[in-house]
Amino acid sequence: MTDPTLYAVTGAALVGIGFYGLLSARHLLRRVIAFNVIGSGLFVFFGAAGARGETVDPVPQALIITGIVVALSASALAVGLIAAQARARARATLPDEDRGGDA
Amino acid sequence: MTAFLVLLVGPLCGALAAIALPGRAARAAAAATIAATLVAAVGLAGQVVAQGVLRLELGGWAPPLGIALEADGLAAVMLVMTALVMTAVGLTARHALAPDTAGARAAFGFWPLMLLLWAALNAVFLSRDLFNLYVGLELLSLAAIGLVALGGTAAAFAAAIRYMIFALVGSLLYLAGVILIYAAHGTLDMHLLSGLDPAASDGLALALMTGGLLAKTALFPFHVWLPPAHGSAPSPASAVLSALVPKASFVILLRLWLDAMPDRTGEAALTLLAMLGAAAVIWGSVRAIAQVRLKLIVAYSTVAQIGYLFVVFPLAGGAAGDLPSASGAWNGTSMLIVSHALAKSAMFLIAGQWMSVAGSDRLADLRGLALLMPMSAAAFAMAAVSLAGLPPSGGFTGKYLIMTAAFASGQWVWALVMAVGGLLAAVYLYRPLAVLFARTDAPDLAALSRARQVVPLILAGASIVLGIASAGLFEILPVGRPQAAEEVL
Amino acid sequence: MTAILPVLLLLTSLLPATITFFLDQDRFRLRNTLNLGGAIVKVGLIVMMLLAVAGGASYETSIPLAPGLVVLLQIDTLALMFVSLSAFLWLLTTVYAIAYFGRKREQSRFFGFFGLCVASTTGIALSGSLISFFIFFELLTLTTWPLVAHKQDRASLRAARIYLLYALPCSVVLLIAIVWLKGITGPILFTDPPDLSQVDPVTLRVIFAMFIIGVGMKAAIVPLHGWLPAAMAAPAPVSALLHAVAVVKAGAFGVIRLVYDVFGVERMTALGLGLPLAVLASVTILWGSIRALQQTEIKKRLAFSTVSQVSYIILGAALASPMGLIGGLAHLVHQGLMKITLFFCAGIYDERAGVRAIAGLNGLGPRMPWTSTCFSLAAIGMIGLPPLAGFVTKIYLGLGSLQAGAPWVLAVLAASTLLNAAYFLPMLYRLWFADPAPEVAGDEAAPALVAPAVIAAMGALGAGMLAASGVSPLGWATLIVEREVAP
Question: Secondary structure of chain C in the HEC alphabet?
Fold first, then answer.
């Protein structure tokens, strides 16, 4: 298995794990982490896609960096909102998903 | 090219200024930004009419390496529409979100978020690079989520978080699609993509991107986040969220399916989109009929109205894309986008004003308000006429053009959807109107000044006038479209 | 100049209406001047055009709304007939309404929507294409709603809701039919009817039925008539508008346009559509009359009478014979004049004597002689006794039915005449011959209320007595048939 393929498979696996987490977790912080796992998986995959040729394509690297910044700001906002909601309701789950919530 | 610069950078700088400056100065900076961006949008539209499609390659680097911005007719129309709604919302928010009425949190947060949102919208309308669009969409979603959370109540936070989950999943799906496209073609520029041979992974890529965009557009069945989010945001924010935000992701869908990758789509997929649209029309309307709060009625109406837009895909794409009726479907859909933006923002602004007068937006508390505030009641009625697609209004013109295209291309089912949707809209909008109009013992409430009632009236009036005098719109719209709109009686 | 005239005609109602909305409630004089001024200018314009069109002129304007959507306004003899009727009655109703409302509140809203209604009716009359017709037809629906709901009480709101409940679904049916036909034949212009010879006859029959549902609802064809009696909850000037100036007339006018300028007599006969339409009209005529008999309130009885009388117009169109059409067209005007007289009078009885029930009319004749004379004249005209307008109509319809080879229509006409007599004569008997109830006091000290009724009644009388001359409604109807249909 060549290097880029390994990265691509790892990326795909991360995406899969992340989606499982996103769907199964009720706690909102877990969901944010799952979101980041998916994002990382996609970026790894993207990087692998850019490294397939003889020379490494620089465009994916630029895009990945941008993507990481975007994902970071989205995560920051998400954590902020979850904290605000937890203060307001003393829970870190959505109202209609309280049952079985692990907050 | 100054207009490009002002449209993209102006609102960003304005947002920063609104954060950095103290209260009064922040609002002054926001007002100045709004004025400048409005002028730039109108100026750009004028340039597009005069010179045709305007293109800007950032830093002088041409795609595939560089990123191109492009203002065609559709983009110009969207930019002007956004600027008009934003200006009206800004004028209303000066009172509705003053610190002493709305609280310091909302009064501080609204202006930067609104300007960020505007910058994101402009970026989405002007970009032709799939990754650039992703960044624009993310900025758009983050600002929109912030606006939903402005209310500061537990319900608002819950609505914002639910919106966020959909928006983030949507972003990831879209990003995954973008990566597949890049891996297959080595470019993300829409123009270049349209000229390339399809790759095996394109179908999956398009499906992923579409799924992501549908979640952000709130098309049935991805609409569940929309009503609570739009219903619990402060009304000026709801106006922006409902009138403009879904349009951004829809415009990307339009460009993807009809311009960038028309040969990767199948009839079945086009029909599926329209079927989801039809389901949205029916379900959104039925849910709207069941609501007792005005803002939720208006929010569910957005779910239904978004459905109309998706009927365009089988009428302007696939086999029907080569028929002369395709341009009618395209024109009609653009008309619906604009008239819905005007009418829906008017409705939310009015709902906010009534809430501030009556203390709640439950229908039962709004009895007899038409006598107290005839101007905003008239504005609400006019917006309702446009949303129900009754003539003369932009809503009617758009619907008529689409119905004509549907019959002309032998797909009359979609015309029936439009017709039934109009009737359902009349039902759910009739209830608030009848309540407003009922005579009660003069409600002991203080009306808002006429100067404040006039802003939504102008928006609603514009959605009506659009049905009578839309020559300007149809002069801009065909710019950059291969199938120019032909004149037929 | 000639291209501006149709637009000017619209603006005479549209402008005063728009300005009226923004006037304060207590600007009585300005508002009255505006509305009366608009109405007078309009009547003046129409007299001018009547002369020109009689001499062979025609006017046309097209206003593009969007690529593929054009509003076409044109003035032909048929348009002019309807527009003169509505303009003349608008003037009368404006005078009447100003007196009727006096110093009451919410007048700016009333006169604003009233003007919009008349503007829509003008648009319906002038429309040169089916889609223009539809746009104004719908605008009429929308602008009538606030008028029906004007009192804002429970009954009025219910009436207004029922009105929309009938109007909107039917208009959707109409719109689908229009778009469908347009998809087959291209744009549908009244001056240049589409070529239907290649279209599948079953499709055409379905489209025709959808058209009749769409416009027939406003003409109160059974079973789409339920909204009209319910709408009598509205004030008297609104009833006048619904029954004579605008709404019901727009429906009947629409049927004529469809039959003669979209489908054409030959196509309709070939498709076998004339007979079902004539039967539908006949059923409506009889059913309306029977229901009118059962009513105990003046306005309700008059409302069912309208249901019945308007279908004379449709019957005339359905017979597809020249005489029948002349009768139907003339009845468009005749019924308008007579019915507006009756509603004006019903309003006066209500306002000046507090009488709404038929039983309350006892002995009012001598106390309110002007009103009661007008009421009696119009009622006799409705029954169809010579020399009033209704008589002329029935003669022509009868001749038309023989011409069309449908003698059974004579029986319908005879039965309807008997029924008309049965529900109008008792009212006249009560007015003039019954002993007055002691507690009812009535007077006519409101010349602005009585004068419009007198003028309208004289119009109905004149239309019958001068029927043979060229300037009468009948003369003009003959001109229409000669010019538009016969060649």
Answer: CCCHHHHHHHHHHHHHHHHHHCCCCCCHHHHHHHHHHHHHHHHHHHHHHHHHHHCCCCEEEEEEEECCEEEEEEECHHHHHHHHHHHHHHHHHHHHHHHHHCCCCCHHHHHHHHHHHHHHHHHHHHECEHHHHHHHHHHHHHHHHHHHCCCCCHHHHHHHHHHHHHHHHHHHHHHHHHHHHHHHHCCCECCCCCCCCCCCHHHHHHHHHHHHHHHHCCCCCCCCCCHHHHHHHCCHHHHHHHHHHCHHHHHHHHHHHHHHHHHCHHHHHHHCCHHHHHHHHHHHHHHHHHHHHHCCEHHHHHHHHHHHHHHHHHHHHHHCCHHHHHHHHHHHHHHHHHHHHHHHHHHHHHHHHCCCEHHHHCCHHHHCHHHHHHHHHHHHHHHCCCCCHHHHHHHHHHHHHHHCCCCHHHHHHHHHHHHHHHHHHHHHHHHHHCCCCCCCCCCCCCHHHHHHHHHHHHHHHHHHHCCCCCCCHHHHHHHHHHHHHCC
